[in-house]
Design a protein that fits this description.
5 strands; alpha+beta; 5 helices; two-stranded antiparallel sheet; about 140 residues
């Protein structure tokens, strides 16, 4: 989000994790997005609150992404460690239909259009699943 920077991180740090000649070709626009918060408009009608956010979308080989710096930056942010990244970043693999989003130093989400495509992660990293989310996650793999 354009105005939100409560962690006082250098917003340009994320952009430096991609080769500039590739980053410059990414879709990069300010857009009005829903905040998922319901507000009342001037007529008393409920509406989704909107924010202005910079949406950046790029497609490139994994070898051209400095993933270590990105994940460390996300983990560093709430801890106050430089260099931090407070932007929401989502990785998608169009060949395997898998997605990944690390939300902070506590965890991440992994998803796919089929539980079988991420079953190996479920099995090998099962002890990482937070108890709060376990019932919802287990139902996809224990059918």
């Amino acid at each position: 989000y354009q105005d939100s920077n409560i962690f006082e991180v250098d917003r340009k740090y994320l952009y430096k994790q991609f080769p500039s000649h590739l980053f410059n070709g990414f879709y990069n626009q300010l857009e009005s997005v829903n905040s998922c918060m319901i507000i009342k408009d001037e007529n008393g009608n409920e509406a989704m609150e909107k924010y202005e956010a910079r949406i950046i979308i790029g497609k490139l080989p994994v070898k051209d992404i400095n993933i270590r710096n990105i994940l460390n930056g996300i983990g560093n942010t709430e801890m106050g460690i430089d260099s931090g990244i407070d932007q929401s970043i989502y990785f998608f693999d169009p060949l395997t239909d898998k997605g990944f989003h690390m939300y902070d130093d506590r965890g991440c989400y992994v998803w796919s259009n089929s539980a079988d495509k991420i079953r190996d992660i479920y099995i090998n990293r099962n002890n990482w699943i937070v108890d709060y989310h376990r019932p919802e996650i287990d139902k996809y793999f224990n059918k």
